[in-house]
């Protein structure tokens, strides 16, 4: 596969949905909302108190004006009202009216048409073209007439309207600022969590040498990363111990066992041994060979897992590799009456170690031939989609039950179907180690009947994780 | 009989090699460190050297490089505890002719020695035709005849036969066959090579005559002149 523009993993793409779910976002939003409600309530209180104060002041002016008018004798009240109107000079600021006991207008500009209660000031809405909003006070004269005193309160109503507008606008701006702050505050931790998540996935994939990034801020993410790192250290140490014990046993026993085999072999080759002894020697040599084979496979896995082979990686053309494998295994398959087919897809290449991939695929084909029934079929195929490649080895044998598909990849685990078939139980472990080194994935699937072993090669235009 | 220099610091391994090669009728000389080995290899003529890679004094890789610098082209079988393919390649690049990993079966070591000695003997006159008994391999036209009759072989069958023919009379193990014919260094299991040999045998065998390819139980195969 040739390099193509690097595609981003889901973890690198921060979406609003991811941000919305973070606790930082929610917490910031909650705190912001509390602050917003506080600000709004405070502003509203100030507004209410101011509005009430302004109304009270208007009312006291109205009362003062009414009291001043009432100092006139009742008989001259219509004249006093007209005089007051004249004094206000048609400013449209003060309004007066005199009604008789039956609420019919005697004099003035106020008619009381919109209704009133004695001594209870009320607001009369503006009548465009006639007057603005008016605060009106009705006072009953001792003789039963009603004096109406009004005052234009346009500045107060305007002020109230402006204050309300400012309140709504500032609430909006504050809310927007809170959301922006919540997003900005969430992005940085979310990025860190994404990095932690990616590292955790690499560790879970078996890269026990990876560690969670610790920024040294001493925050909760640093604490978590530090704890996980200590845990991985411990896991790595335990795995290393178990492995080194296994390897040491395999390594240390190989030399004396090989020597033992040489002694037996030399004894077997001497001319003066009885045939019964020769037979026993052959059996002993065969058993020793089995043990040595297993030790070799164990050490081979360690060698591959040590990961020192990546320097020799190159682009490998898949088609000739698979064709040479099929040529190598066809005689073995045909001897058992099994047909072996290759669905070719020329032009594909993967990045890796040719001889290790050949070894891994050899193991898989050898297994497929072992487990395919008499006159069965083994099929190799390659598919490619969006830069990824899948190499498939399929047989029509008994397959592996779903619950055993993970365990057969472990050393010495052969699965229940393999009881009758010779083998070390290390073949698939070798395959798994080789694929792990390549960062390829191994997937076992049901061919109904039979097994599909799939090697999944990720889009290699993305840089591989360096060990 | 060949003269073989065994350069090996581990006494038990050296003893093993000396005994096995002695049993095959070769004369051996032992050097237990790199400097002594280089001195002996430079001063005296040998038909082959078995060389441990890790040695006191100069190490195996340097030793074989020095030999090649001095135009001493004696075949070298490198023996090492390092089994990785990269190590093998490094050993062969330095000038080694074959590479064997410790621990090894002594008959396997002896087989490799025979293959190298045989190759050395054949080198001066690279034949156009290989003949083993009634089998005739035309190396240029890639044709095979048995008893004068042409036999059609597939590409890898021909390479297998050529390898057996070049080592005719000597036993070669399945592992050596897989390495030298197919070029891979892992154990593909006994059956795989067996069936390839069986197919080749089927094509070469003539009625009433013993098979030219002999199976030596527990060891490998041998092509005999019949």
TrEMBL record, chain B:
InterPro entries: CheY-like_superfamily, OmpR/PhoB-type_DNA-bd, Sig_transdc_resp-reg_receiver, WalR-like, WH-like_DNA-bd_sf. Residues 127-225 bind DNA. Residues 127-225 form the OmpR/PhoB-type domain. Residues 3-117 form the Response regulatory domain. The modification 4-aspartylphosphate is found at residue 52. Keywords: DNA-binding, Phosphoprotein. This is Response regulator transcription factor.
């Amino acid at each position: 596969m040739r390099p193509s523009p690097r595609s981003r993993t889901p973890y690198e793409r921060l979406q609003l949905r991811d941000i919305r779910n973070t606790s930082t976002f929610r917490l910031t939003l909650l705190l912001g909302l509390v602050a917003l409600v506080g600000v709004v309530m405070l502003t509203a209180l100030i507004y209410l108190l101011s509005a009430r104060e302004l109304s009270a002041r208007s009312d006291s002016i109205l009362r003062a004006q009414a009291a001043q008018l009432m100092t006139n004798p009742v008989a001259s009240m219509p004249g006093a009202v007209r005089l007051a109107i004249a004094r206000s000079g048609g400013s449209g600021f003060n309004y007066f009216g005199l009604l008789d006991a039956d609420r019919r207008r005697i004099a003035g500009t106020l008619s009381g048409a919109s209704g009133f209660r004695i001594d209870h000031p009320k607001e009369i809405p503006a009548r465009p073209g006639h007057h603005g909003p008016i605060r009106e006070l009705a006072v009953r004269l001792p003789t039963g007439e009603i004096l109406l005193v009004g005052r234009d309160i346009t500045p107060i109503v305007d002020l109230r309207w402006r204050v309300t507008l400012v309140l709504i606008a500032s609430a909006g701006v504050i809310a927007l600022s809170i959301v922006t702050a919540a997003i900005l505050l969430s992005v940085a931790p979310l990025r860190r969590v994404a990095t932690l998540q990616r590292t955790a996935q690499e560790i879970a994939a078996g890269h026990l040498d990876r560690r969670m990034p610790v920024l040294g801020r001493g925050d909760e993410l640093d604490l978590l990363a530090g704890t996980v790192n200590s845990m991985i250290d411990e896991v790595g140490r335990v795995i290393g111990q178990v492995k080194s014990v296994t390897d040491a046993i395999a390594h240390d026993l190989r030399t004396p066992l090989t020597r033992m085999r040489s002694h037996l072999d030399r004894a077997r080759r001497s001319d003066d041994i009885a045939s019964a002894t020769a037979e026993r020697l052959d059996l002993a040599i065969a058993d020793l060979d089995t043990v040595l084979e297993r030790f070799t496979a164990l050490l081979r896995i360690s060698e591959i897992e040590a990961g020192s082979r990546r320097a020799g990686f190159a682009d490998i053309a898949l088609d000739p590799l698979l064709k040479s494998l099929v040529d190598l295994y066809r005689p073995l398959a045909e001897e058992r009456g099994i047909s072996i087919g290759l669905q070719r897809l020329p032009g594909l290449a993967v990045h890796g170690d040719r001889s290790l991939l050949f070894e891994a695929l050899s193991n898989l084909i050898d297994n497929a031939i072992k487990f395919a029934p008499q006159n069965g079929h083994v099929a190799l195929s390659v598919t490619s989609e969006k830069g990824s490649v899948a190499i498939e080895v399929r047989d029509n044998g008994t397959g592996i039950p779903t619950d055993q598909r993970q365990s057969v990849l472990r050393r010495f685990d052969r699965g229940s179907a393999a009881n009758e078939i010779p083998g070390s139980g290390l073949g698939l472990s070798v395959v798994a180690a080789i694929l792990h080194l390549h960062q390829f994935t191994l997937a076992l699937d049901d061919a109904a009947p039979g097994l599909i072993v799939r090697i999944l090669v990720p889009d290699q235009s993305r840089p591989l994780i360096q060990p | 009989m060949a003269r073989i220099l065994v350069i090996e610091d581990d006494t038990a391994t050296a003893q093993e090699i000396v005994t096995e090669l002695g049993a095959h009728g070769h004369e051996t000389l032992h050097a237990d460190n790199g400097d002594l080995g280089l001195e002996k290899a430079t001063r005296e003529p040998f038909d082959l050297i078995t060389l441990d890679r890790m040695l006191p004094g100069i190490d195996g890789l340097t030793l074989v490089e020095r030999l090649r610098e001095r135009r001493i082209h004696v075949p070298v079988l490198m023996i090492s505890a390092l089994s990785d393919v990269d190590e093998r390649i490094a050993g062969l690049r330095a000038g080694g002719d074959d590479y064997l990993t410790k621990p090894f079966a002594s008959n396997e070591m002896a087989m490799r020695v025979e293959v190298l000695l045989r190759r050395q003997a054949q080198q001066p006159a690279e034949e156009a035709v290989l003949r083993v008994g009634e089998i005739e391999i035309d190396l240029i036209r890639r044709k095979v005849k048995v008893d004068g009759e042409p036999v059609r072989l597939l590409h890898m069958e021909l390479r297998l036969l050529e390898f057996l023919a070049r080592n005719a009379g000597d036993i070669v193990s399945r592992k050596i066959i897989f390495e030298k014919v197919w070029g891979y260094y892992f154990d593909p299991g006994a059956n795989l090579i067996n069936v390839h040999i069986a197919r080749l045998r089927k094509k070469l065998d003539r009625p009433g005559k013993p098979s030219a390819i002999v199976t030596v139980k527990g060891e490998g195969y041998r092509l005999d002149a019949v």
